[in-house]
């Protein structure tokens, strides 16, 4: 994990009981996790009466440093020893190290979920709908008398947040082919997960 | 059901018996064109309506051709009917049709935002045809959705075997 100087300086300040007493430290830590993980969090997250006595510039600086580190740690799946080592290097006392590690552990799953969901991927199929019809005639062709399916795939695009649909028609044979292939993929997946 | 041939059609087709054995045509290009158009109309309309052999023979009878020519026309109709109907089918308002599906199993191991992942996914290449154009769509899904897709589409296939559908198919002819 590569951490910038500002992150390190922010943590050194957080370690100092003169700048952040135990209560203020705990509040700032919680605020950092909240800003990252709570979708409804806003700037008011630092607006706590017990943080009022701290210079707002210092508060923001340390809050940013904490959030940055938390994301980096989450990204690299840092374990307790990695966290401890870094915090020790920043001159944290035992109590604060424990507190940080506990908060991190409590929020680890949400953090990893969040990080996992960021990124580009191919359009993702979320659902399928189908319609069965019996074709009788068109103006070009009479006496058709055959079943046909209309299949619509609901698709989600991660980056554009759009929801296009892919629709196509097929006859019985073609649908059987499609289902057959989907089942092959499914069985293959099952086998692979058993390895 | 008999074919309804207008006077104009009958006139166009009247040129057919005049084609001599050697295949040489001693007529104007207009006449030839009309003849071809008339023949085309005869065959496409017959195919579209899927008229029976008997009905076709009766329809052609009014043109007053020789026995031999009538037989020839009937054979032409029967030989080409299926293909003509396939072509006519493509003229209907249409959605892309399914052609085939390719699939691939993937496991995402890491991304820029998160390392050490094991995220299985299935990637598809869906081949579709639309009015002669071939298109492909590359899509992905997760294992749970894949099972859901299979289940839903199997239900769709099962539907054709229900009493309701069988009754409809039996009775609408």
Automatic annotation (TrEMBL), chain A:
CDD domains: Commd3. InterPro entries: COMM, COMMD3. Transmembrane segments: none annotated. Coiled coil: none annotated. One of its GO terms (biological process) is sodium ion transport. It comes from the Eukaryota. Residues 124-193 form the COMM domain. Pfam families: COMM_domain, COMM_HN. Belongs to the COMM domain-containing protein 3 family. PANTHER family: COMM DOMAIN-CONTAINING PROTEIN 3. This is COMM domain-containing protein 3. The lineage of its organism: Eukaryota, Metazoa, Chordata, Craniata, Vertebrata. The gene is COMMD3.
């Amino acid at each position: 994990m590569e951490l910038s100087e500002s992150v390190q300086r922010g943590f050194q300040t957080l370690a100092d009981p003169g700048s952040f007493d135990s209560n203020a430290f705990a509040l700032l830590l919680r605020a950092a996790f909240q800003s990252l993980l709570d979708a409804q969090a806003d700037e008011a997250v630092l607006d706590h009466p017990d943080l009022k006595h701290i210079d707002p510039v210092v508060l923001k600086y340390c809050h940013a440093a904490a959030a940055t580190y938390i994301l980096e740690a989450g990204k690299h799946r840092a374990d307790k020893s990695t966290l401890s080592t870094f915090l020790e290097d920043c001159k944290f006392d035992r109590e604060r190290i424990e507190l940080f590690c506990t908060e991190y552990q409590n929020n680890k799953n949400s953090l990893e979920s969040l990080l996992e969901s960021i990124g580009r991927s191919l359009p993702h199929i979320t659902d399928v709908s189908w319609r069965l019809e019996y074709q009788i005639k068109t103006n070009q062709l009479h006496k058709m008398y055959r079943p046909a399916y209309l299949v619509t795939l609901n698709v989600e695009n991660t980056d554009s947040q759009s929801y296009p649909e892919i629709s196509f028609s097929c006859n019985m044979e073609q649908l059987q082919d499609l289902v057959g292939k989907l089942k092959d993929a499914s069985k293959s997946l099952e086998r692979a997960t058993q390895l | 059901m008999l074919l309804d041939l207008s006077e104009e059609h009958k006139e166009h087709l009247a040129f057919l018996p005049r084609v001599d054995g050697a295949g040489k045509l001693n007529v104007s290009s207009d006449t030839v064109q009309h003849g071809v158009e008339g023949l085309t109309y005869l065959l496409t309309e017959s195919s579209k309506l899927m008229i029976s052999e008997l009905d076709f023979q009766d329809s052609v009878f009014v043109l007053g051709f020789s026995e031999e020519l009538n037989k020839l026309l009937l054979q032409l109709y029967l030989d080409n009917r299926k293909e003509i109907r396939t072509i006519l089918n493509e003229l209907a308002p249409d959605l892309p049709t399914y052609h085939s599906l390719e699939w691939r199993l993937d496991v995402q191991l890491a991304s820029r935002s998160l390392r050490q992942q094991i995220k299985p996914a299935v990637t598809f290449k869906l081949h579709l045809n639309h009015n002669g154009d071939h298109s492909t769509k590359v899509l992905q899904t997760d294992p749970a959705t894949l099972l859901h897709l299979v289940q839903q589409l199997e239900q769709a296939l099962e539907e054709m075997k229900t009493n309701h559908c069988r009754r409809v198919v039996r009775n609408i002819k």
